[in-house]
Amino acid sequence: MSLVLEVKGETLTGTITVDRQPVTIAEGKVDGTRFSFKGSLDGNTRSFTGELVKDEIRLTPDGARAPAIPRRPAFKPPSTSGK
Questions:
Q1: pTM of the prediction?
Q2: How many domains are there within the chain?
């Protein structure tokens, strides 16, 4: 799972990618560190809630028992070898 999120005021936009299928975020809302949105794929709409906790996003699809915690890819600075 990957997330690309953008926040403008209380509005959340972006995409969620699951199994290499990107889905546009709809009805995204932000309230402090909590957020919610919907995503539709092949006519099926799922609702998600989430929370930013320190440096981690906890994302819970409706009906799930526990949140998923997407991991950030490790940042690798550009190589400066040969200079």
A1: 0.76
A2: 1
Query: Does residue 25 fall inside a structural domain?
Result: yes
Region 18-27: mean pLDDT is 90
Sign of CA pseudo-dihedral 19, 49, 63, 65: positive
Distance CA 49, CA 59 (A): 6
Residue 39's domain comprises 2-61
- C-alpha distances (whole Å) from 63 to each of 47, 48, 55, 67, 76 are 9, 9, 25, 10, 36
Q: Please write the tens of the pLDDT for every residue from 35-63.
A: 999 998 888 899 999 998 888 888 888 88
